[in-house]
Specification:
mainly alpha, disordered N terminus, globular, Lysozyme
Length: 214
C-alpha cells in the first residue's frame, strides 16, 4: 500500500462526523500554530498579504458567477442559522469567508470546515494556548507579520484574513500537501486527528449548484 493510500485509510478510520462539532460546548479545540523563524522575503510577503483590509466585497465578472454566489450564500445561510441566528451577522460572516478564502486561493468549504472545528463559529473563542477568534490565530502572528495588536484578532475580517493567509503559507511550505498543512496549522503536523476532523467538517459546507444542473 502506498503512503498516500495508508494516509487515506487512516483518515477514514478516524472520521469524525461534522454534526458532532456543531454541538460542542464553548471551548476552542485547536489553534496551536508553532512560532517558526521566517526568512525576510516570506515575512514581507505575509505582511503584504494581511495589510490593507479593504471591505470584503466579492467581485464578479459575469452575471452567472454572481447568481452562483447568491445561491451559495442562501444555502450556507440556512446551514449556519443555528450557530448564527441573526441574518445580517450571518450574511456578513459568509461574505467575508468567501472573500478571504478566494483571495488566498483556498476552497471556501475547507475554510468553513476549519472554522467549525477551530471555534464552532464563535467570534471570541480563546483556546487553552491563547489562540483567538474564528480561525484560532495565535497572537505571535500579529508580531511576526502584523502591527503587534493581538486584540485585532477578535475582529472578523482581520481574523479570517490572518487565518487564510497562514493556511496558504503552510500549504506552500508543504508543497501543496493539505493533510500536512492542516497539521501544521494545528501544531500537530503529521498526525491525522485534526486534518481528519477538518475534512469531515468540510463535507457539511460543500456546495453543489443544483439549479445550474437542471
Amino acid at each position: 500500500m502506498t503512503a498516500d493510500l495508508k494516509r487515506r485509510a487512516c483518515l477514514a478510520s478516524l472520521a469524525v462526523g461534522p454534526s458532532a462539532w456543531l454541538g460542542l460546548p464553548g471551548v476552542a479545540h485547536a489553534g496551536g500554530q508553532l512560532e517558526e523563524p521566517l526568512v525576510d522575503s516570506v515575512r514581507t510577503a505575509l505582511r503584504t498579504s494581511v495589510a490593507d483590509l479593504a471591505p470584503p466585497e466579492p467581485v464578479f465578472f459575469t452575471t452567472e458567477a454572481r447568481i452562483v454566489y447568491l445561491r451559495w450564500l442562501g444555502t450556507m445561510s440556512e446551514r449556519l442559522r443555528r450557530a448564527k441566528p441573526d441574518w445580517e451577522v450571518r450574511r456578513d460572516f459568509l461574505q467575508t469567508v468567501w472573500y478571504e478564502s478566494k483571495r488566498a486561493g483556498l476552497d471556501v468549504s475547507l475554510v468553513m470546515g476549519l472554522i467549525q472545528v477551530e471555534s464552532a463559529f464563535r467570534k471570541f473563542a480563546v483556546s487553552s494556548v491563547g489562540a483567538r477568534g474564528y480561525m484560532q490565530v495565535m497572537p505571535f502572528w500579529t508580531r511576526a507579520i502584523g502591527d503587534g495588536d493581538a486584540g485585532k484578532l477578535f475582529q472578523m475580517q482581520t481574523n479570517l484574513r490572518f487565518g487564510c493567509v497562514i493556511l496558504r503559507h503552510y500549504l506552500e511550505r508543504e508543497r501543496g500537501d493539505l493533510f500536512m498543512a492542516l497539521g501544521r496549522y494545528n501544531g500537530s503536523r503529521g498526525k491525522p486527528p485534526y486534518p481528519n476532523a477538518v475534512f469531515a467538517a468540510q463535507r457539511r459546507w460543500q456546495f453543489q449548484d443544483r439549479a445550474a444542473e437542471a
